[in-house]
Every structure is written in C-alpha cells, then in structure tokens.
Amino acid sequence: MKSGQLRTITEDCTYEGRKVAVEKELDLQKFNVRTDLALEAKELAERPGSGPIPGIHSETTEDDGITITMLHVENEQGSQAIGKMMGQYITIEVPGLREGDTKLQDRVATHFATHFETFLQRLQISKNARVLIVGLGNWNVTPDALGPLVVENVMVTRHFFELMPDQVAPGYRSVSAVAPGVLGITGIESSEIVQGIVDRSKPDLIIAVDALASKAIERVNTTIQIADTGIHPGSGIGNKRKGLTQDILGVPVIAIGVPTVVYASTIVNNTFELMKSHLEKQNGDTNQIFGLMNGMEENERLQLVREVLSPIGHDLLVTPKEVDQFIEDIANIIASGLNASLHDAVDSSNVAAYTH
Length: 356
Fold this sequence. Notes:
Keywords: Hydrolase, Protease, Zymogen. Residues 1-36 form a propeptide. It comes from Paenibacillus paeoniae. The chain is α/β, with parallel strands linked by helices and 356 residues long. The chain has helices at 38-45, 76-82, 102-122, 146-153, 158-163, 183-186, 190-201, 246-249, 264-282, 287-290, 298-309, 323-342; strands spanning 6-15, 18-27, 56-63, 66-73, 87-93, 131-135, 175-178, 205-214, 223-227, 253-263, 317-318. The strands form 2 sheets. Strands 3, 4, 5, 6, 7, 8, 9, 10 and 11 form a 9-stranded mixed sheet that branches. Strands 1-2 form a two-stranded antiparallel ribbon. A hairpin with a 2-residue loop joins strand 1 and strand 2. The protein is elongated and about 75 Å long. It starts with 5 loop residues before the first strand and ends in a 14-residue tail after the last helix.
C-alpha cells in the first residue's frame, strides 16, 4: 500500500471491564483523491520545498491561451509516487474553450494533431498501419458520451481498403472505429468486445477515447490528455474494470481522455481554498476560522472531505450545466485532430474543416 494511505488513530476499547486506549491503523485508500490526469496526480504527490519527484520529468509550454505539459513517468519509483503507469503523458489545457471560440477550437485541434503525431512516431507506427479507434462510454449519458461522439466524427476508411483498395487515393490509411457501449447496456465488458474485434480485424494500433474525472473544476471540459499507457474504462468514477492496454490486447494503445466530471468533495475543497484566499486578502489571518484545516495539505483535506461525504452518499459526480455543448465541441476537436494526424491527405492547418 502506498504511503499516505494509512493513518494511525487512537480508539477507546473495553478490556476486562476497563477502558483502554488502543492504537490502530485506519485504511484511507478508499478515501484517496481520484483523478485520471497524470498532471493532477503529480500535483497531489508534490510537497512544498521538496524538489522534483524522482522518476518524473515534466516540461510546460504556453501558446496564447493553450498550456501544454509533457510528463514522462520514467521508472517504477515515479509510477509509485503519483500512482500512474510508466509512460508518456501530454496534457493540453485551454480554459478559453468554455467561451465557445471556434478559432481557438481550431488552434487546439491543430496542437492536438501535432502532439498526437509525436506519439505515432514514438511508437514507430508506419503511414500504412491499420488503426482502430474505440469510443468508450455511454452514449445515453452526456458527460460519458465523449467516446461515441468522437467515433461519429472521425474519418473511417477501412471498408474502402477492403472493398476497393485500388481506388483509395494516396495519403489515407485504414481506419476503423467502434463504440462498444458500457457493461450496463451490453452485459459485456468493453475490453472483451474490443478483444474480439482486434482478433478479427488485426489492427496495428488502438486509439481509446474516454471521459475522465478531474480534481479541479477549472479543468473540466477544457483539458485533453494523451497517453501511451492505455486506458481503464470507468477508472475515473472508481470502477475496477479490465483495461485496454498493450499487455491485454497485444497491440499498442494510445489513450485520449477529457475530464467531464468532478466530485462534490473536490468542489467543497476548492471552495475552502477560495474562502481562505479571500479571507487572507481581507485580514491576513485565517487560523481563527479554519483552525487545524488551515495547516492541512490539499490531499489530506480532500481525504477528510471524502471521508465525511462518502458514507452518507453525498460525494456526487458533478458536471457543468452547459455540458451538452462542451462535449460536442471537444469531441469535434479530438476527431478533427485525429483525422489530420492519421491521414496525410487531410490539411493539418485546417483540420476543423473535416468535421464541422
């Protein structure tokens, strides 16, 4: 069990008619902060003044409202420190996406296409490699419909290569796409459906698209993560499911995710931070109001809030009321970026024209 998942507490017990104090360890694993973003996991693992986390290397660049963080989990030590698999992660943060600026959306799609191509090169995926795009999620639930919406908008070409290969123009590759649904609809694990498709269609690469969970309200529907580690359906909401990874499927898997939900405990904790910041500006002293919580680290405070909310069923999953438009916009961004990065014939300078 990772450090920070156990807490020693003192409990009064009755022994031979007398009350005695007994120390025991409380398992906090079920109260740990859940986030699918490697960047957030790194932020939670960092300690003020402790320096870089061993085994984790990250670089951040900015381009007029678009922040790109490249994070490399280099070894097992780094993996254990942040609770993420070893591999490469790219996070594209664009707070301005909430404003519905179509020009900004086109710029984000171009950035996405450029960085996705680096993953293809790193995995040595050739120009004629066959690609299967898997849109995970429940198309009946808007915050979970990202994967199916991306599948609707990507350019699929495998049938042309199968039926009329001599008529396919240069600059295209064989791409197929499927939205396998969720266990509650099909009664079958998504990974089992994908495994059957992989066995028959023999793709050289799988691209899995899924909705994620974040610990930060400002990152919901404004952030895209690309990872070469595969994906575990339902992990963001605490489900333990068989994942889509190279070890399981025998094919390289690139995962694309967007946080579309946040926990109520996160909102409570973020509200605490905002109140603390506001009061510090007013009188500079917050100890009288917040007491012991003032000295807690963020992950400790989040654990405490979840410890209170979870037993009474109040740690709800929350999504913005404008999620319908957000999810459609960001699905178009990802689909157009994929079209440009997978097909050389698609103009990468105007990727949005292929889905809008």
